[in-house]
Amino acid sequence: MPQSIKPAIVRILKEYRSLSTLVDSEVQIEESNSDDRKIVVKGDYVYRTLLGAVAERGTYEISLEKTSLNPIRVRITPAGRPSISA
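The structure corresponding to this sequence follows.
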């Protein structure tokens, strides 16, 4: 798995959840699978404010184009809220 996948996941989570660039992210990749054209990544995330308080936590499943790492399918489930799919 390329090293650039984790920054791509962080970027996508922040973009889709409209989280500020001023929050700190903890993104865990629990599982990843790939084929000829895509990579599917699943895991957990936690975003904290600059003061350390948890702003949001949840799980994600993101399909990325293998070469560009652009999102194909995004499913984010913040803890205690309905999932967001695109």
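Helices lie at 5-17.
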